[in-house]
Design a protein that fits this description.
The chain has about 90 residues and is mainly β. Helices cover about 0% and strands about 45% of the residues.
Length: about 90
C-alpha cells in the first residue's frame, strides 16, 4: 500500500529518538519525547488551500523539523507515518 497525500499535506517518518542522555543514562520508552525531526516520504501537489495558492517547498528525502503536536499518525504496512500540513513544518535541516 502507498500513501499519496492531497493538497498541502506531507507524509513524514519520524527519526528515532535518542535512547541515551548526554551523560549516558539510558531512557525507557515512556520517558522519550516524540521526535520532532522527520524524513519526508511523500509530498502533495499543493494548489489552492483555503482560497490561497500553496507552493510546496519541501520534497521527498528532505529532513525536516515538525511542530511537536502536529499531524495525524497512521500505520501502513507496519510502518508508522505522520501526515502534516506543510505549514506544520518549521524548518528543513541541511
Amino acid at each position: 500500500m502507498k500513501i499519496r497525500p492531497l493538497m498541502d499535506r506531507v507524509v513524514v517518518k519520524a527519526t528515532e529518538a535518542e535512547e541515551t542522555t548526554k551523560s549516558g543514562l539510558i531512557l525507557p520508552g515512556t520517558a522519550k519525547e516524540k521526535p520532532q525531526v522527520a524524513q519526508v516520504v511523500a509530498v502533495g501537489p499543493g494548489g489552492v488551500v483555503d482560497g490561497k495558492e500553496v507552493q510546496m517547498t519541501v520534497s521527498v528525502g528532505d529532513k525536516v523539523i515538525v511542530s511537536k503536536y502536529a499531524g495525524t499518525e497512521v500505520k501502513c504496512d507496519g510502518e508508522e507515518y505522520t501526515i502534516v500540513r506543510q505549514g506544520d513544518i518549521l524548518a528543513i535541516v541541511e
